[in-house]
Each structure stands twice: as C-alpha cells, then as structure tokens.
Specification:
It is built from 3 helices and no strands. The chain has helices at 2-12, 17-50, 61-93.
Amino acid sequence: YGSIRDVRTMNLVKAPFVYVHTLSILVLVNTILNAISFGIVLGMTLEVATGKNDGKHSKDLSKFVISLLMEFFISMVVPFLYLALLEVCVCVSQPFTFEDSKIPSL
C-alpha cells in the first residue's frame, strides 16, 4: 500500500506557482510580439503591393512577399509549439488530475 500512498502524494505536489506563471507570461508576451511583428510586415507588404509608397520599392515586391510568408510561418508555428509545451508542462506537473488517468480506489 506504500506505493499507492506515494502516487497520492505526487498528486498533492504541484508545480511552483511562480514557475508556471512565469512560463505562461513568457508564452503570452512572445505571442503578442509575434502578432505585432506579423502586422508590421503585412502592412509594409500591402503598402508596396498597392503602390501607395510612390513606387519606391515596387521592384522589391517579391522580397516583401517572401518575408511576409516567412513571418506568417514563424508567427504561427512558434507560438503553437510554445503553447503545446505549456500544455505538456501542466500535464506533467499534475499527472493524476484528469479522469482518464485516475487510479481506481475504494
């Protein structure tokens, strides 16, 4: 019965609040900065594509479109990975709180 007590004790031990909170804030700030960066690149590309910059960068349109696509993938993939790792952190820190992983007891 000692091992069952150990498992129940593991359920009571939670990840430190400061660690989880700091990780959540870092993920949120990174997502916000990625959104701002993508918005700036999108605005610059649309300005060049519509010709509102007096044709100064019209020959660089392909470079702007490529940088827009790169920024799109960076802004979508990286926050997705960070949010997935944050979810893994929560699942690892509380392994027996979900209904699927509960240990049957009397």
